[in-house]
Design brief:
The complex is a heterodimer. Chain A has a single domain, classed as PhyR, sigma-like (SL) domain (Butyryl-CoA Dehydrogenase, subunit A, domain 3). Chain A has seven helices and no strands. Chain A has helices spanning 7-26, 29-46, 55-73, 95-104, 107-118, 123-130, 134-152. Chain A is globular, with a radius of gyration of 15 Å. By secondary structure, chain B is of the alpha/beta class. Chain B has two domains: 3-91, Double Stranded RNA Binding Domain, CATH 3.30.160; 109-200, Arc Repressor Mutant, subunit A, CATH 1.10.10. Chain B has seven helices and six strands. In chain B, β2 (39-44) and β3 (47-53) form a beta hairpin. In chain B, α5 crosses α6. Chain B starts with a helix and ends in a 16-residue tail after the last helix. The chains are: A mainly alpha, B alpha/beta. Chains A and B meet through α1 and α2 of A and α1, α2 and β4 of B.
């Protein structure tokens, strides 16, 4: 993947996965749409990305923060109706796992789970997205996994 | 398109509206189908900036556009539609001259001069690299003129396909010689093998 030199390239390379990520965090297409809009507008305003080669993790960081801000602002029952639109495409993670994660975890932990287990980011990328060390990213993902497993029982 | 694809496309449409409102979009692009295959077309605040043969932009052109107008280059069909409409009319033979504004400002002064002369070659006529150099005020710069024509960022609309070698053979073309042949065929009818005899070349 080439380094984007324009907003359009950044958008075309990552909009689909960022929308899917937003949908996996919120479970609702309207909420995901808002997170997607806020993420890309913030990225365009903050252009250029801090370092070449980290654009993807940078976008995930923005999207995670937007989703957390949003969940703080709008405390309401989760709607999970649109989750199947972004059903996980990876082995070992089912739609039921994802739905459980959305229901059982607060947004920050849900982000750790989804980034690693569903979006397939490396721990280095997860640490950028969650603004923590790689070790902290590992333990946050492990903690989130444990909670999901418990909730699935 | 998958259901997610449809939802993302709708979200993108709203994003483009907001980006326009906030002044974040400076240049709009869209891929347009044509009889010569897909064309990547960019329109800036002062007019048409680039028509590139293919579904991907030329890295060279993109750098030139970003230097002139910044990184706010976004997919936005609406601003490109007037160009797409004029091109459709051209392909169907109904349009012989383009009305859309063109923006050659990211180019050097010499390139702009050469392309301004090229833009005046009428539909269906032919001229030569040497005549274009003469028209641009420098008879001896015909190789440089050929270079500027080969680097034309707005083919078809700035009709560099009407510029051929002095012996009437087709010369070169950034979109490939087959594309040049088809454009000339649309405007003048079948291209003779080996090009047109020099007598067909415009005296201007």
């Amino acid at each position: 993947m080439t380094h984007p030199t324009t907003f359009g390239e950044l958008l075309e390379q990552h909009e689909r996965e960022i929308f899917a990520y937003a949908l996996r965090l919120t479970g609702d297409r309207d909420d995901a749409d808002d997170v997607y809009q806020d993420t890309f507008l913030a990225a365009f305003r903050a252009w250029p990305p801090p370092r070449r080669g980290t654009e993807r993790a940078w976008l995930y960081k923005i999207a995670t923060n937007k989703a957390i801000d949003r969940s703080r602002r709008t405390k309401r029952f989760l709607r999970l109706g649109d989750l199947p639109l972004a059903a996980p495409e990876r082995d070992g993670v089912s739609l039921a796992d994802l739905a459980t994660a959305v229901k059982a975890l607060p947004t920050g932990q849900r982000a750790a789970f989804v980034l690693r287990k569903v979006q397939g980011l490396s721990y280095a990328e997860v640490s950028v997205a969650l603004e923590c060390s790689e070790d902290a990213a590992r333990s946050r993902v492990a903690e989130a996994m444990k909670k999901v497993k418990e909730a699935m029982r | 398109m998958s259901e997610l694809g449809v939802v993302v496309a709708e979200a993108r449409e709203r994003l483009m509206q907001r980006a326009r409102r906030e002044g974040l979009e400076t240049v709009a692009y869209r891929i347009v189908d044509s009889p010569l295959g897909p064309l990547w077309i960019a329109v800036g605040p002062r007019g048409l900036l680039n028509i590139h043969y293919g579904a991907e932009p030329s890295p060279l052109e993109l750098r030139r556009i970003v230097r002139a107008y910044g990184p706010g280059v976004l997919p936005d069909a609406r601003r490109v539609d007037p160009v797409a409409r004029e091109l459709d009319e051209y392909w169907s033979g109904k349009r012989h001259a383009f009305d859309v504004a063109v923006d050659l400002s990211p180019l050097t002064a010499f390139q702009r001069k050469v392309l301004a002369v090229t833009a005046r070659v009428p539909y269906g006529e032919l001229t030569t690299y040497a005549k274009i150099a003469h028209g641009a005020g420098n008879d001896r710069a015909y190789r440089a003129a050929a270079g500027a024509i080969g680097d034309n960022p707005i083919p078809i609309v700035v009709p560099c396909h009407r510029v051929v070698a002095s012996d009437g053979t087709l010369g070169g073309y950034a979109g490939g010689l087959e594309a040049k042949r088809r454009l000339l065929q649309l405007e003048r009818g079948a291209v003779p093998p080996g090009g047109w005899p020099p007598a067909h070349l415009s005296r201007t």
